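Worked example (supplementary).
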Amino acid sequence: MNRYPVWKYAIILVALLVGAIYTLPNFFGEAPAVQVSSGKATVKVDAGTQARVEQALAAAGIKPELVALDGASIKVRVDSTDTQLKAKDAIQKALVPDPNDPPYVVALNLLSGSPKWLSALRAAPMYLGLDLRGGVHFMLQVDMQAALSKKAESLAGDLRSMLREKNIRHGGINRNGQSIEMRFRDTQTLEATKAVLADQFADLQEVDAPDGSEYKLTATIKPEAARRIQDQALKQNMVTLHNRINELGVAEPVIQQQGLDRIVVQLPGVQDTAKAKDILGRTATLEVRMVDESSDARAAEMGAGPVPFGTEKFLERGGQPVVVKKQVILTGDNLTDAQPGFDNQTQEAAVHLTLDAKGARIFKDITRENVGKRMAIVLFEKGKGEVVTAPVIRSEIGGGRVQISGRMSTSEANDTALLLRAGSLAAPMEIIEELTIGPTLGADNITKGFHSVAWGFAAICAFMAVYYMLFGLFSGVALAVNLLLLVAVLSMLQATLTLPGMAAMALALGMAIDSNVLINERVREELRNGSSPQAAINAGYDRAWGTIFDSNITTLIAGLALLAFGSGPVRGFAVVHCIGILTSMFSAVFFSRGLVNLWYGRKKKLKTVSIGTVWRPDADHAITKAE
Amino acid sequence: MEFFKIRRDIPFMENALIFNVISFLTFAAAVFFLFHRGLHLSVEFTGGTVMEVAYTQPADVERLRNTVSGLGFADVQVQNFGTSRDVMIRLPAQKGVSSAQQSEKVLAALKAQDPSVTLRRTEFVGPQVGEELATDGLKALAMVVAGIMIYLAFRFEWKFAVAAIIANLHDVVIILGFFAFFQWEFSLAVLAAVLAVLGYSVNESVVIFDRIRENFRRYRKMTTIQIIDNAITSTISRTIITHGATQMMVLSMLLFGGATLHYFALALTIGILFGIYSSVFVAAAIAMWLGVKREDLTKSTARKDEDPNDPNAGATV
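After joint prediction of all chains, the assembly is encoded as:
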């Protein structure tokens, strides 16, 4: 009656084993580590970099526990914080010759300290939330209306120059919010403009209306185009943020899109919020300037003379110096888009730039006057300029569509386009949520959360063992298994553990014991009504199951609603709550029955069950069924 | 050990009217305080800045308050938080001034007064985020109520669903009433606790309803009142032990969880206490007054037993 088939025990054993393996990394904690990641969009971290890191460490006499290439960064695990600092210095010295212009970001980090075989099984500790490890959290709102207005403004300018080029006379083009209003005297020009719009401006849709004796044409950005513009603006802002945050040397920054127009930035371990905010808000700028090709400048480039008056020396990406004039022809404000692509004629990798109307006009004039000369595109980041590319002007370029090509691989073209786009923000952002948690508070929170769970757990187990004797002990073991499985599942999911999450863990344990209380009370009741011990155990578990199922499902409904609509701490709470309910159903019913069956199942002539006092109303004294 | 040596069924339902009058009065009082005083919503909902600073010595809160209000912030709250050395400062959201400027200004002023001050935590929430959180919270509440009602109506009967939901909303409103009366801070964590209580308290009602359903099938001669009394009596030991166990956990949070978990644990404590009471006196009594009959339950399950797709078919409950 109370025997489990072998396969059920097999399930239990497998669950326990898997639970133990995936819970284990949480006990190893985290070991000090150094992380090397790219400091610039043009610098890639690869196996070559890893070799350089290993050499640098060997030269400094440091034996790392682990050097691994993990995605776009190299992680070096060492045994102590002392070695960590030494390793950081050694790597810094080898990879970053000039601290003012770091090609790599070398940051202190923590890595899971679990042994290799655990990592090979993809067992990793839970990720600690900011409230447990300290750091800053920002939520930024991207001003999408501004992005659309900016786009409308540049389209209006493009339209103006296009109409001039086609000799279409209009009575004025104005931007009104996100729509462009045009006036015409006659239907002829109106129709001609419509043709231009249909042909050249796929993103616009227009409505015309007679306005007194004149005609008015209102063009607006199509909804699908608006969506695309907003999406691009958000992506570009995220890339820009990434570039800027790199400078902080944060080990594992989180930069995530939230909803349609928000970006969440989390910087674990960062305490200096003022600096973080400063860097997030900093703008990188792009400038187009002419290369000085005088003989003095040539000499300065070779390092054989001083830099001539009115010029500046910058380094090109390849490391070659270029002397450019101080006069700025165009800035990044005139650049509306940059996309990687190919040259139509030579099939070389190229970057296609789109300039706004003003930029296009200036660019046309400059290229006409300077055919055969070199023009430099300079990116100013962190207050330092770098020449992205300095191509030779081959012919006059009109229409605002510029192509940069020559001496570029496809990936370089990608990087350059990214850099050009990422140089500045596509739309203004403002911080709408900010959270700073000090490192001591984080450590405090961990201890507090841990103590809450530990003491509550101990109190419940003690009470159960006293009140229900052996059955109570089984319940306690089942509760421990519940905790084990809960932690294992959370670790497997790589859930972020927060303080509300720890509270949910404590609450889940408190509520999980309900199932065992229901079962134990039922068993007692059956014994009270005169059932034999074996029958009582069987009926107790069977009858309690329906109740446990119903009550847990209703609790699960509440948990799922929290998960669906909650955000931040509520979500962290809900995840643990829901998983806790599922693991408690397994451990309290399936696993605890397994234990009871193992203990009592084979005893055919079972006389007593150790489940504490079973009091009968018909007797004057309590009959103790306990052994 | 055995705490509950009950010879006869306790006549809960005879006194149901008195208890329901009492619960109606507490409910009315909670609603009154909710409207009269309102909830003291945390910065997560209202928008604004919270700063937590720590001093090496006990802080002079009065002087701090003067310093901060001297900076030109209206409606500033400065209070001790946890220990006498930790101080929490709340600034309402200001138009045109960014949070960064607010918190830096305050910290600079505090540093000028006492250089030993350290910033432990700042939290800033824009007004629009707060509004969204509030509507999301209400949506979650509505979802929980609807979900539970549909499930109970399906598994039991609509009368039970109505009774359970009234009983549980009663708990929720009373928790909110406590928060309004004492002007405790209502944060997102407390909202999570309130919603957890809703799930938890419905647990209680479900256990009793399960027993009522079972009794209807088992004891054909008992009246509805006797059946309900018997159901509550035979589950009372479980009810109290379970609540006791959960309360032990919550007490542990209250004692060791620190200030962050304080109100969370407090909301759960109230929820647990009223959860026992409401499932015994409110849920069962309302189900009784709605006229629960033997036929309601036996009929619905007979149909269910025939459903081959029902995973619970044949389960004896």
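Two points are worth noting when inspecting this output. Chain B has ten helices and six strands. The first helix of chain B runs from residue 16 to 36.
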